[in-house]
Amino acid sequence: MSNEKNLSVQALARKNVQELTPYQSARRLGGNGDVWLNANEYAIAPNFELTQQTFNRYPECQPARVINRYAAYAGVDPEQVLVSRGADEGIELLIRAFCEPGKDAILYCPPTYGMYSVSAETIGVEGRTVPAKADWSLDLPAIEAALDGVKLVYVCSPNNPTGNIIDPDEIRAVLEMTRGRAIVAVDEAYIEFCPQASVSGWLQEYPHLTILRTLSKAFALAGLRCGFTLANSEVIGLLMKVIAPYPISTPVADIAAQALSPEGLALMRQRVAEVTENRVWLLEELEKCACVEAVFASDTNYVLARFTASSAAFKNLWDQGIILRDQNKQPGLSGCLRITIGTREELRRVITALQALPGAAAASINEKQNSPRKEHM
Ligand SMILES: *Cc1c(COP(=O)(O)O)cnc(C)c1O
């Protein structure tokens, strides 16, 4: 009987929700690890204390101090900033504001971040893919040919999980071909690790440019759930129509403002320097591991590597409490695992575990030569 009831509830759900595969977040995947290198978090919790105690009152919809500080940090006007519950909410707000369910489409270029497709599916909007080229640059002619009905193009730069910056000339080409046709969302979740690559200075030139940012990565605040959308005020105004009335709780605004203070920014930049040093070390050590076929250059707080036997490597480390992210199912990433840059001690444990694994059979030498880019830095 309860079975029948469950079935009828299932049948009540929207069809696209019935068919939806939820995002496999690192936390959902679980595991009993003590070295968490699967969600691109910072390894050590920063210290904050609440200064606001007015919990009887509703918060400001767009807390002014947070908006002003983020605008100053990003070098844009406060009218060009929206704060939301993580960058993930920004991804969804854009679809809700610009895409008609069952009619319009979003476009993105796999291998890339998984939430673009999940948000589109949830809302009932087509997710159209134009795979990146073998060297992970954008396939511009294919994007242009696929733009019919597309209202929103997501470009992740630097890209998750590959770690490469998308050439600014390619982003510009996408902005030119979409002028008057579609919004372009450049996902800069990791931009603090390569600030020179930001396109935030282009907002004046492109009314349809939007940029997604977050406090979850370089700011070490994934648990806070705070992200930003940068765009011209016309776009921000439309997003404000669809955002919840009180998206940012009082404690979140309090801590976000502190993280964006001059001291908070200095700490962030220290973390970036430390993560970058650890990434260089990890890359060099991975290169020497027999079980590693290719290591890909990264401008982020993670590294992607191709393994001779990735499932075995993943399981072996998992059993030792070291949790990585399997990217094997993504187009073009067979045999690839993503490793978040943790503390030096955590990375030593990764390398020690990998050194114990067997190397490639002779046959894979060919594959090594054909891999997209084997680079040291
Ligand atoms: C982590 C991540 C996000 C999500 O950031 P939140 O602010 O934690 O929601 C968005 N885009 C990319 C590419 C990410 O890696």
UniProtKB/TrEMBL annotation:
Highest taxon of source: Bacteria
Matching InterPro entries: Aminotrans_II_pyridoxalP_BS, Aminotransferase_I/II_large, HisP_aminotrans, PyrdxlP-dep_Trfase, PyrdxlP-dep_Trfase_major, PyrdxlP-dep_Trfase_small
Keyword annotations from UniProtKB, A to Z: Amino-acid biosynthesis, Aminotransferase, Histidine biosynthesis, Pyridoxal phosphate, Transferase
GO molecular-function term, one example from the UniProt record: histidinol-phosphate transaminase activity
Signal peptide bounds: none
Similarity comment text for this entry: Belongs to the class-II pyridoxal-phosphate-dependent aminotransferase family. Histidinol-phosphate aminotransferase subfamily.
Designated name of the protein: Histidinol-phosphate aminotransferase
Organism: Rahnella laticis
